[in-house]
Specification:
Layout lengths: L2 H11 L5 E8 L3 H6 L5 E2 L1 H14 L5 H17 L3 E8 L5 H16 L6 E6 L2 H4 L2 H5 L4 E6 L6 H19 L1 H7 L1 H16 L2 H20 L2 H8 L4 H27 L11 H6 L1 H29 L5 H30 L7 H32 L1
Parallel strand pairs: 1-3, 1-4, 4-5
Antiparallel strand pairs: 2-3
Helix pairs in contact: 3-4, 8-9, 10-11, 13-15, 15-16, 16-17
Amino acid sequence: MSQKVGKLENKISSSSASKLLVICVDRDNDVGEKTGISTPVVGRDACIEAAQRLALEDPEDADSNSIFSAIKTYEDLISKGYVAQVITVTGVKNRGVQADEKIASEIKSVLQTFSANGAVIISDGEDDESVIPVIQNVLPVISVQRVVMKVSRSVEYSYAVFGKYLKMIAYDSKYSKFFLGVPGILLLIGGIATVFGYTAEIFAILVSILGGAFLIRAFDIDRAWSHWTKPTPSGFIRMFTVITGIIFILSSISAGVIAVDTSLIGSETQMINIISNKVIIGQFFAGALPILWIGIGAIFGGILLSNWLGGIHRRISDTLRLIVLVALYPTVSQFTNILINDESSFTLIIPLLIGFAVTLVSATILFKKFRKHKDEELLSD
């Protein structure tokens, strides 16, 4: 006697069931859909025929193995002297409530001719076993036997999950444009470069493209850009001011370079000496600072304008951001004077305190305005 049959006998002997119904459950109706056989399939010979036809139609379907397992369980019970019958019941293709109702109805129809008082459920997975509470309302369930193929169940699940993610990568635009689009661009550029003999030069370009793609995805730059460029008035304002701000910020580099005294830079001066020369750095930032601040202010101003209809709280935050930018300008400007003219660092204290006071007063006024606005809304409600 096998261990499985022994366990089954122990369960049956511990119960009061005298007539057993061995039920093979096919909740998604593969038997009916693929073979055209109407269910319930009652009896050993009828179940063998159904299993054979299903195996011929789809050799990879595990339900045929479940039916054969139910037949073997039935024969084991008969050989041990039990009164038993074997059946195959099915639901519907889309599963759900209709499938459960159909399975319960088929079992009730069988019980009209075979008055069993206990059931042994045979299934090939958790989906079929989910119908057990439904069967228990019709007939007491004595045992549940799961049919596991010789292939590891974990491997089967892994293939299923892997296939699901492959399908998402291939057909879901949210994922395909990154996981397929970026490698596709890299392979295309690499192939063209190889044909024309620019393999070494193109490597740097491919690495740069890949690094840029990683940065864009890591910081959600693509989503932010799509949000900022929506075809709405606020979207166009954001797009215009961001592009303008970026142009000003890039132009500030040129302005900083022009402001540097060329006499401080010899023809053989190394880059490390240029970077470590505080006068050169101070002149660079002094020249770049106005244009740089205009560029950043353009971006912050665009955010303020685009959020003008987004509520008083967002307008207050955007306004305060611009005020902080203006309040910081004297401090940063004085820092460049320290680098150029070798002034004392204590000269930063006055502009820093003034900027802090302006920020504090502005924040207090704006948030009082916000609180007043909220109180007026509550009174109006």
